[in-house]
Records
---
Amino acid sequence: MARDHNLFTILRGGFPAELDAVAIETAGDAPLFYTWRDIERATAMLANLLDSLDLPAGARVAVQVDKSVESLLFYLAVLRAGYIYLPLNNAYKNDELAYFIGNAEPSVFVCAPKDFASLSRLAFAAGTTWVFSLGADRTGSLLERATRFADTHTPLRRSASDLAAILYTSGTTGRSKGAMLSHGNLVSNAETLKAYWGWRTPAEGGDVLIHALPIFHVHGLFVASHGALLAGAKMLWLDRFDPKKVIALLPRATVFMGVPTLYVRLLGEPGLTADVCRNMRLFISGSAPMLVETFDAFRERTGHTILERYGMSETVMLSSNPYRSEDGERRGGTVGFPLPGVALRIRDEKGGAAAPGEIGGIEVRGPNVFAGYWRMPEKTKDEFSDDGWFRTGDVGKVDSAGYVTIVGRSKDLIISGGYNVYPAEVEGSINDLPGVAESAVVGVPHPDFGECVVAVVVARPGVALDGAALLAMLKTRIANFKLPKALFVVPELPRNAMGKVQKNLLREQHAGLF
């Protein structure tokens, strides 16, 4: 019989023999403890609830809730029941959610209890059949309903090509794209990272992960959670990043994952010392470029060399600096080598192979690479080369030793605090505001966020615009991480002879703003 590729089944295979050991411990004032048996039973009850709804095969389950252990358990239950999970950033506003729900057409939508009144109307209007609520304090209709169901469940068998999740990633045209990730994509990446990063099972001494990331994107939901579950490793669970709480947990942990902004904030705390990191095995950074100064400062302060890696919503992880010294050194400013099973190439402007050290477009291929964009066959076709390589849109180089360095983003992406922001999407929201003729959005360096969003706006003739008022209106329409940190009203935008806005001039003009 062919292998069952259901991601839940694979992850459950990593659970320790002692199911009554603690799997997840929350880091609040009154910590909660979840055993591996609790995970097994709770996901079974939630999966049975989903099965009782008579959902169509391939049904999408959209979720926009605050981070909680229960939200992670529900994700696992969706996999277990064989449906497709659709995580949504809890910063998204109603206008953004309306697009995602309209495009994905989920059969089930789960939201926070405080948002149930407004979001249930939105979801029902879009054709969603079932809407549940789930609070970070374990309140809401989802858990209430699930308690009525049995705590045993046979996971649905899945093939490698069956969809497991859809992750929406913003597009340069302003229209978000749903990256379709299969069980095979996620299983292959989880198994590769378990070996490459040396995850330790309980029989090998047992890793302990500090989980301080959101769980609506690749880093927190897939890389961190899958890694710990597959290794049977305990998680110390924070509902949000708090540098003081993380430092207090470090002596009890062995693995930490964060975006560069989190490391900057850790370095801002005098309590971060080599002594509190004495039991740590590995610090991992990703989702945005890390400054070499941060990399060096962390090593000097703690004695630990951060492992930087590179991934995308469409591919999960692609490359990583080595964990084991025999595989090479960890080099700041690089994202290491392509992972085992992943092929990566650099193409020059003419589409030919770039020489070592030459900058060009990064293309990848492997079992981790997604099948395409949800309901966008033409966009999918455009993003793949004729010989089947995915064009990442990132610009980089590979040196003679094989280290990959990302030097830019051809798709004009801004990465602010680890979150992706596409200028065209923000510009579209600004241009819809009253009195606005046009706008240009750029990313500029920021000491905390790495990059931040800056908007330059031109008013319609005869209109006097107020930048603060525009930002206030914009705040109700887009997620906070997309919101410009500064907005300038100007008479006109700089353009070249062809009439194209010269964003490079805007970046230079505002480069020292922060």
---
Amino acid sequence: MKRRAFIAASALPLLGCERTPPDGNTLHGAFTGIVHTRGHRLRDPQTQPPSSTHRTRVLVLGGGVAGLAAARALRQQGVDDLALLELEDEAGGNSRGGQVGGIACPLGAHYLPVPGDNAREVQDLLEELGLRQRVAGRWAYDERTLCHSPQERLFFQDEWQEGLLPLQGVGEATLAQYRRFAETVQQASTAAKYTIPISKVPPALVQASLDAMTFEAWLDQHDLTDTHLRWYLGYCCRDDYGAGIARVSAWAGLHYFASRHGFHAPGTEPHTDPVAHDGGVLTWPDGNGWLTRRLATPLGDRLRTGRTVTRIASHRHGVEVDAVVEATGQTERWRAERAIVALPLFVAARVLAEPSDAVRRAAAQAQYAPWLVANIHLRAPLHDRPGAPPSWDNVLYGSQGLGYVDAMHQSLRPVPGATVLTWYRALGDMPDGRRALLEQPWTHWRDEALRELRTAHPDLGAKASRMDITRYGHAMAIPVPGTRTSAALQALRDRPADAWQRLWLAHSDLAGYSVFEEAFTLGHRAGLATARAGL
């Protein structure tokens, strides 16, 4: 995903009503969506005797994409005696949606690429939801959910251009570097297989060498130094991994392109892969929240939100879990035959009574990117600069943010009106980014968003009526060098269960990076294995 797959720390709801001096417009806003004090409870756990005890056959711990996928797989196998415990007040993790001013918008991940054949579990989900079907012997996707054109544009050299690769007015030297990078991506695809999900294919030897260095070092090694190319590659890495070319591995940088749509340099024919998908994306006004709500709804009262898991213990005869009920502050104890731990590795390492060496090592190796998502309600359409027309994804060249998506882009209304722009910023490259995210006031991040977007939209402040900001302290695992070939992660992927097969791990962290397909596949696998172990 771009901005696809984000448990963890964020912020208490803090209401604000502040003036934006450049426009004199009163702009209301709040920190919404995540309550950071719940996750921070694990920093200094305080034990208290449980006030109630519950029993169920299977517990799912964590209601992100992996946990919801695990619960679905259990139900498909006939396991209805289950409970899912989720930290926040709504399931979905960083694939949740919300509303601002009555308009649906994403609170995190905002689209799903049309999955390739390696992600058959995701394909089956889309078929179940009616989003894909056989037409004349070929798979067709619901046109209402495929992203409408125009899809992407870039504000570059004071006007908008189609696509996100800087092209307008660049010289021949830049275009030559684009062509050279396209060739290296094609060579990488030929030398080794890049797939999503990665758990189905072990890394090749050449990929191990790529995983040993940063993407920046690899670009240096290949004399790919063009400023425009490096900006674009940095944007892609921050968009998918939360950090730029100086932090992610060369394997991750190439995987971004080689696992999906490749890299098409202007003036050249794109390389085609007969088994690759067509590069389309599925999106909804509320982003991937549309998907997670449909995964959560069938659970009914089996979904228990506002539960902070503080202890997980397994033994030969079952599993025991303690969780704080946030609404009352009391601890409840759950006993089950088996449990699926769909929690980030750094959380699992804290709450497991006896974490394995692989869990400890993998948690110690993991690095996470903080993220910020700002939803800006507009009373009226913005004036536009010359060039390409308003698009679904709108990015500003050279900016620290990742641009914005328009929540009403999929609408068929004949005349533009009020909408919500969702602006993203990854802080994986920012020193002490997590601390800044937590400690800076709402007004700071409001001004950051307005300052950046006014470059292309000077009238933004005057037309914005509200800005709600969601903060993710540990949004996604960053695939730094050593992640793809991590022996600890490989051990957890190969054997995600404990010695008694009472606990199964399932989270995108096991893949080393965060996208919907990885999380869903790992969760689905854990659900199937848990159900079959109990037969």
---
Amino acid sequence: MKKILMIIAAMLVYGAANAQNDSTAINRKRVAVVLSGGGAKGMAHIGVLKVLEKAGIPIDIITGTSMGSIIGGLYAIGYNANALDSMVRKQDWSYVITDKENLRNQSLSDRKKQNTYLYTTGITIGKRDMNAGGFIKGKNLTELFQHLCIGYTDSLDFTHDLRIPFACVATNIIDNSEVDFHSGRLPQAMRASMSIPAAFAPVRMGDMVLVDGGLKNNYPADIARQMGADIIIGVTVQGAPKAAEDIGGTMSILSQIIDVNCKNKVDENLAITDLHLQVNTKGYNSASFTTAAIDTLIRRGEELAMSHWGDIIALKERIGIDETFRPTILQPLRPQVLTEKLHVKSYTFENMTASAERFLRQKFNLNKKDSIDAKLEQELTTSMRIDLFYQTAECRLVPDGDGVHVILSAGNRKSVQLHAGVRYDSEEHAAVQLGLDIPMKTAVPVNTDITLRLGKRIMARGEFTIHPRSFTRPMLSYTFRKNDVDVYVNGDLDYNIRYHQSQAEILPINFDLRHFNLQMGVRWDYFHYKNKLGSETSEQLPLKNQHYISYHARLDYNSQDSWYFPTRGARFNAEYAYLTDNFVQMDSKTGINDVSANWRMSFPINHRFTFQPMVYGRLLFGNSIPLIYANTIGGDWFGHYIEQQMPFAGIGNIEYVNKNFVSAQLQAQERIGSNHYILLRLAGAIQADKTWELFDNRVLFGIQAAYYYNTIFGPLGASIGYSNHTKKPYFFLDLGYEF
């Protein structure tokens, strides 16, 4: 009952707001605001709207193109200038303007994958992908518009059903015609209006293929006049015309082509504008979605409008209002938040196969569940994405008397996903990794994951994950590695070893959740040694082709807010393995017990400086430890070159250490600007062949300083370090995500 009363109250507010904004109820001229396209530069529109609100200028009509259609459309449903300012600043635009999956809804393994690959795209095999046609399909933009337009997502008349009459423009590339949206689905209209050709996939509506409206009408003042505007206030964000010497690279040529084509109607529409505000966006382009750029662009829009304060106030007399007039400032309708259990009257499944519906009913026992809460709502939508491979999933609650009807609505099924990653470092040089995710839409969903790594180290991996109705997801995998590893002693290269490794693993227990992954299973490894080159001492090391069978239990936990530069959260990994060569023993003796763990916490001192203490180590119990499983340290990451590798500040290359190794590290992280980081690491460690001798040997110390720039291609940085083990400095250069 409470929810119904809240909905009725919202409807009354909506009606009252429309009545107060209806200029036909008073004797004055109708005012339109026209917002041009311009990509990220259109953020300046928000600053202008702030000043118009401050001056008390009523807005009776609003039209826009591209980014102007987004700002204008949201303003038309109640997002005032301050609400728009807050909304655009809190968005993660590096996520919104890509097709990446939302990390908040992903499992831990999916989060790792997203922080490994530079580029991900869907590919369609056997049929044409109707969502293709652009580098970015715009999935996340569509979801954002759907979320922001709560209450306005159905087909509507933009003149009568929105809180301010609105229109926007798209271009139909089938016949190069202008398409003016005065009705339809608001999120779809905004998405079509900003579909920059080649960058974003077009929007298909019937026999139309719609792209950015700027190609036909980038400043739609004529539409505002047709809608009944008496006074037009226009905002444009295009820069000064480019000279020949300003056009050089590919991007500047493409930008010039778009700018030239976006001049259609501009002069004619400026001629019917009563107040034209041209924002200076020099130094920024359509893709300037950084926090600093958004802040500057909004500020420039506000400063420009304030410089025309006298002109804006003078308009009041022409409009027919005095200086004391203040229009009603609208507020957006907000979706209701599920905070308690509600009685369920029915479940409806939209855009889902019968087998998918049956899967959800059986997994969550929906036929016997007569109530729903926030936890069940989240579990249902997560399962639709993770288990059933739907790109989007929504759970809507429709009130009905003393209960609700639950509507589970799915988007398109995920296509085959292609991932590509590239990195460079000063030791391995260049490396490329490709991934292929193939969701198999069988009765019991199965996902196939194929990975290929090319470089000094070659790796090929096939992984099959079953998604049964239980919460565990059994996994079977096979991995082939062709390793080429340099081994150092006290900082000097001692020998190089090349070998092939075949590995098969069965994990009947595999809980893969947002922050948490538990795996238990059996592994088979076979090592085939090709050659070993190095010192005379190293030539005496026994290496023979061998197979091993081991039993593993692994626990991974990661709640960090950033994969590479976290400011809060924790990371914990622990593993126990029992290693044998005949399922029970090793060399006719008791098998080897392998215990390892690492734990790191992040403590923010302020919004830029973070302390990150970490403890880690690995203990091996057994008499005959194969060299391939012995403890190694060096580098910046766990398991980078070989599986048991542990990092250590001040040691850049792989060095063998004793069977028992325990270390502690303190890292200080300082962010400079938006994406620059200075890191300082101090590490200490103890080691011994027997655990009770750990404190009898010399303590290892290391120090490392690093600078990183967090680019869209992954972290780019350099580090220098020194340790009392190597007794020499080392330098390391690194670009790209780690794999």
---
Amino acid sequence: MQYKSDIEIAQQAVMKPVGELADKLGIGEEYIEAYGKYKAKIDYGILKEKKDAPNGKLILVTAINPTPAGEGKTTTTVGLGDALNAIGKKAMIALREPSLGPVFGVKGGAAGGGYAQVVPMEDINLHFTGDIHAIGAANNLLAAMIDNHIHQGNELDIDTRRIVWRRAMDMNDRQLRYMVNGLGGKGNGVPREDGFDITVASEVMAVLCLSGDITDLKNRLSNIIVAYDRKNKPVTAGQLKAHGAMAALLKDALKPNLVQTLENNPAFIHGGPFANIAHGCNSIIATKTALKLCDYVVTEAGFGADLGAEKFIDIKCRKAGLVPDAVVIVATVRALKHHGGVSKEKLNEENLDALKKGIPNLLKHVENITRKFNLPAVVAINRFPKDTEAELDLIKQECGRYGVEVALSEVWEKGGAGGKELAEKVLRLIEKGNKGFRFIYDDNDGIVEKIKKIAMEIYGAKAVEFNAAAVKSIEQAEEMGMGRFPVCMAKTQYSLTDNPKLLGRPEDFAVTVRDIRISAGAEFIVALTGDIMTMPGLPKMPAAEAIDVDGDGRISGLF
């Protein structure tokens, strides 16, 4: 059977004007700022108007540890939203914005897939409404003001060897990770080491996604630590008087973006923090607004449940006062066989032994959601044509031992119609309710204790080791009164451990924390493990090589 590519499907979509989507949600004209026919910004002032409206039910979509075989978390999120609407529920989805780095690098697009996509797909994957560009501009304004302050006399006595703020660009470019700038003589700045992060790894992105309004945004921006002075005291964006101008650049980016699915159901796409170096969730404003406008909101968190879902719950939900009403854990037969040791080339072959070895990865995520966080969950198997009944039955059998149901999801091929089984099982979970929810750690736990609880309870580590640099940084953070902050673990997404090569469900391993970073604006502590990079590089054959546009402006290769 010949399947159409994602972009071919998206380009054939018949979209509704964005005003019709807003009408469906009950959004008045005064809150709509159209960006052409099919995109709009929604003024977050609508939250004040809707403050007394009841909240809808929140459904979180997460997954197993990702593999080269793919899992389809965004596709499942979009398809589930369409399926809920198809069975008569008022539902919408809330996603993150794609970054240009992955689009031109490995992924080639991040707007769902097949017949479960958000559109206009090309716009969403490329410049969209300019949010990420605005975040990059605010990040780089702050960087420019740091160096200008030093050049103009350095009244704050900044130690140029201890500037921690880096420049940002929304592209994968390894050449920019580390550099020396300010060369060329006195008039061209002070020579120092510097570097770039990809924009979605910037603390400005995390700040925007965790802010409640423009005032909160400005306060958080002012608290960002950019450097330390020669007395080892932190220097902030507020001390540089940069936060007001940064907020001015971000005032429109703070507003959620309204688009639609292929089935003309509403979707908010807003914010895009990385899930390994940041918290990996769309904005609090978008999620809260959606909950006031719909009875059901389906959202996702980046990477596997050990990263995205843990941060969604322990950081985003803690700060926003939210609790998921149900959780969907996405897996594929192919990905589980990869966790069981099968190479990518042989994933289409039935292999029950390998599948049985890989299923414990799924079961650990099931355990974390249902027994650690005490949330109701269902497993969604994103079905592929080569999956056999024996393989699917094995997954159902193993999940049954944890008391968790499995739903087959065929939304890639069938859209919302392929997700009705999943939608119905999610609704039954929500109806049952849940009263045992808990966070993994308490606010009053120390930084070391928080890290240990995440590593040992969520990852399954037997121990946590702290390098000397980490110990020193933790002591300093707690002396600065930041021990109450949540912890944002920076860890490989490919494994439950900090070693990307250890697949499945490893045992008897230790996690090593090499250092921490203080994100005082976002109000979390980043614990660095392994070799996490904040500026990725392009692969040997980047997706950009296949992307083109013809004389009529029609884009191809953006799959």
